[in-house]
Specification:
By secondary structure, the protein is α+β, with helices and mostly antiparallel strands. The chain has 8 helices and 12 strands. The protein is elongated. The N and C termini lie far apart (about 65 Å). InterPro entries: ARM-type_fold (IPR016024).
Length: about 290
C-alpha cells in the first residue's frame, strides 16, 4: 500500500507544491490531448510518487483519525478526500474497497473529463469502461436508457485511466484488496449524476451533483414534518430555484399548505423551462377540467 509509515504533513511547502504540479499536469492533459501533455503528466505522477507526497497525506489522515475519532477531513464526500482544488480542477484520493460483492447500482461521475491513477503496487485492479447513453438533456430522466460496456482490463500500478468527451464514460473499479486511487477532474460538472442498475445497465435514478441542492430538499422535508412557520417563505423563494426538482417540490408543498391556489401554481408551472414540470402541470390541469 502507499501508506507504509506515518508521516506528518504539516505545512510542508514541497508537498503542497507537488500537488499543485500534479493537478496542473492532469488539467493540461485533459484540456489538450497530445503526446507531450501525456508525457508531462506521467512525469508529474512519477515525481509525486518519489517525493512521498501521497504517502505523507494518507498517513497523516490515518494518524489524525487514530488520535481523534471525531475528526472529519475537510471537503469530504463519501469515499473521497479532496487534496487540492482550484477554479478549473480538483485532485482527490478515492477509497476503493475489496470488490467481491457486486453492488446493485452502478453510478457514473458527473465529470466528463477525469483521470484516475492507480497508486497501489500490490493490489490487482480491474476497470470496466462503459459508454453513457445519449440523452437530450442531462436533467431529464429517461427510463430505459442504457450503458454500453466498452472494455474490461487490468490497470497496472501508476497507470492511468482517462475519460474526456462531451458525453460521459462510466468507469467501475474492482480491487482484490482495499486501496486508494488518485482522481483528477475538470470542473465541467453536469447538473445531475445518473444511476444505473448494475445487472441490466439500465437507468434507475438521477440526483443533483450539487450537494447543497440535496440538503435544501432535506431541509424542506424537515420543515414540513416539524410544521415550521418558515416553510411557506422557503417554498416561495424556491419557485425561482435553478434546480427544477426544487421548483416542483416547492409547488407541491405550497399546494398542500394552501398558501397559493393550485390553479395559480399550475399556471406558473406550465410555463416552466423544464420539460418534466411543464408536462406534469399540463396533465394535472387537464384532469381538473
Amino acid at each position: 500500500m502507499i501508506y507504509s509509515r506515518a508521516v506528518t504533513l504539516g505545512a510542508d511547502a514541497d508537498h503542497k507544491q507537488q500537488l499543485v504540479w500534479l493537478a496542473a499536469a492532469g488539467r493540461a492533459w485533459l484540456n489538450r490531448s497530445y503526446q507531450e501533455a501525456l508525457l508531462q503528466f506521467a512525469s508529474a505522477v512519477e515525481d509525486t510518487h518519489r517525493s512521498g507526497t501521497l504517502q505523507a497525506l494518507v498517513s497523516s489522515e490515518i494518524e489524525r483519525l487514530g488520535d481523534d475519532i471525531s475528526y472529519t477531513p475537510d471537503r469530504v464526500v463519501p469515499g473521497r478526500v479532496a487534496l487540492y482544488e482550484d477554479r478549473e480542477c480538483r485532485l482527490d484520493l478515492c477509497a476503493l474497497p475489496a470488490g467481491d460483492a457486486e453492488t446493485t447500482t452502478l453510478l457514473y461521475s458527473d465529470a466528463s473529463s477525469v483521470i484516475y491513477v492507480v497508486l497501489d503496487r500490490e493490489a490487482e485492479i480491474l476497470v470496466s469502461s462503459y459508454d453513457a447513453p445519449t440523452v437530450e438533456r442531462n436533467d431529464v430522466f429517461m427510463p430505459g436508457a442504457r450503458l454500453d460496456q466498452l472494455e474490461c482490463r487490468r490497470v497496472e500500478s501508476f497507470h492511468t485511466v482517462r475519460a474526456n468527451s462531451e458525453r460521459l464514460t462510466a468507469h467501475e473499479y474492482r480491487s482484490d484488496r482495499p486501496t486508494v486511487l488518485a482522481r483528477i477532474s475538470l470542473k465541467k460538472a453536469l447538473p445531475f449524476v445518473w444511476g444505473f442498475e448494475r445487472a441490466t445497465l439500465e437507468a434507475k435514478l438521477l440526483y443533483p451533483s450539487d450537494v447543497s441542492a440535496s440538503r435544501t430538499s432535506l431541509a424542506m422535508d424537515f420543515l414540513k414534518v416539524s410544521d415550521h412557520p418558515r416553510l411557506p417563505e422557503l417554498c416561495t423563494n424556491l419557485l425561482d430555484s435553478p434546480w427544477h426538482f426544487l421548483r416542483w417540490k416547492a409547488i407541491q408543498f405550497m399546494a398542500e399548505l394552501d398558501t397559493e391556489s393550485l390553479d395559480s401554481l399550475l399556471a406558473r408551472a406550465i410555463d416552466d423551462e423544464h420539460l418534466d414540470i411543464r408536462t406534469t402541470a399540463s396533465r394535472v390541469l387537464a384532469g381538473r377540467t
